Amino acid sequence: MTTGMSTGAKPSTAIAGGGPSPAVAGADDVAPEDVASLQKITSVYVYEAPVRLWHWINALAIVVLAVTGYFIGSPPPAAAPGNTFDTFWFGYIRYAHFAAGYVLAVGFLGRIYWAIVGNHHARQLFYVALWSKKWWKEVLFELRWYFFLEKRPKKYVGHNPLAQFAMFFLFTLGVTFQIVTGFALYGEGLGEGSWADTLFGWVIPLFGGSMDVHTWHHLGMWWIMMFILTHVYVAIREDIMSRQSIVSTMISGTRTFKDDLPD
Ligand code: HEM
Ligand code: HEM
Predict the structure, then answer these.
(1) Where does the pLDDT of residue 30 fall: very low under 50, low under 70, confident under 90, or very high at 90 and above?
(2) How far is CA 200 from CA 32, 73, 102, 122, 205, in A?
(3) How remote is the CA of residue 74 from the centroid of ligand 1, in Å?
(4) Within a domain: 107
(5) What is the domain extent for residue 226?
């Protein structure tokens, strides 16, 4: 664990009562309790650049997929007035869906690669410690915390166990399912013998037919939507209420703790 902080400041502005004075600019605005706090803050580099970059590209791709997918499933009565061939509205919606589908799939493969070569936090997305009693205890503790039944949250460097549970079951499995069923449907359009048909064509008869795959792929969207709604709410809630940084950690990669208590 790395400790200490960087304020990007000019060296050594002496501050009365602060013990060994750290480098802090703007001495007029610095109180002794600020200095005491600064000396305690610890931070850990958690999410490496490829994970952060993937997170935001992936989020954008899923927003495009969900909006365009929704319209593919429930087309507006007239996407635009005029001849559909001339306006090509629905064509553009499907095109955006397929382009975002490629971004999602290639990004996900890259993310799997990074789980192998990146730091150990990069692997959290791909497993859950279902066999560990301690892990389950902490899942229950986090549930109580999210339901406002605990007074003080625990500190986590990576994802907390409940977040990891939701990420694995709702996101990782959900996205894998969407990629497999999505490319199976895409293979129908590309035609028999195409790469998508060769790799994923077997999915269509497995589900009973094209219409069934459409329905399951559609349901898959709502599965992932359950994750996104909770995820964004919890990310913002925990940023405010937890004892560590949350949203900025997915931007800078660094987790900063608000206190130096051991747990
Ligand atoms: C998070 C990921 C995804 C979401 C939320 C999503 C959502 C949807 C939805 C809601 C539909 C309409 C289904 C219906 O009611 O008929 C759809 C259709 C479709 N999706 Fe996806 N999708 C995702 C990923 C993908 C991927 C990776 C591909 C691969 C290219 C893909 C290809 C397709 C195809 C080919 C169709 C059928 C288009 C048509 O019949 O005109 N999707 N998607
Ligand atoms: C479509 C939208 C989104 C999806 C699918 C999504 C998905 C994910 C996934 C899969 C992870 C785990 C990352 C990993 O371990 O590699 C994650 C982490 C994270 N996401 Fe999102 N995300 C979305 C939107 C957002 C938004 C809008 C925010 C900010 C408000 C956000 C903030 C975070 C944060 C802070 C983490 C790290 C959580 C932690 O520190 O434990 N996400 N997200």
Answers:
(1) confident
(2) 64, 21, 14, 28, 11
(3) 12
(4) yes
(5) 48-247
Whether 259 and 40 have beta carbons less than 8 Å apart is answered as: yes
CB contact at 8 A, 168 and 126: yes
Amino acid at 204: I
Percentage of the chain surpassing pLDDT 90? 74
Q: Is residue 24 part of a domain?
A: no
113-154 per-position pLDDT tens digit: 999 999 999 999 999 999 999 999 999 999 999 999 999 999
Cα 122 off chain centre by = 12
pLDDT of residue 234: 97
Indicate the SS3 state at residue 44. Answer: strand
- Extract the tokens encoding 225: 């939507």
In a domain, residue 207? The reply is yes
* Ligand 2 neighbourhood includes 251 CB (under 6 angstroms): no
Residues with CB under 6 A from ligand 1: 62, 65-66, 69-70, 72-73, 94, 97-98, 101, 104-105, 175, 178-179, 182-183, 185-186, 214, 217-218, 221, 224
User: What is the total count of domains within the chain?
Assistant: 1
Region 226-255: mean pLDDT is 96
Q: Given the structure tokens 């429930």, which residue do they identify?
A: 74
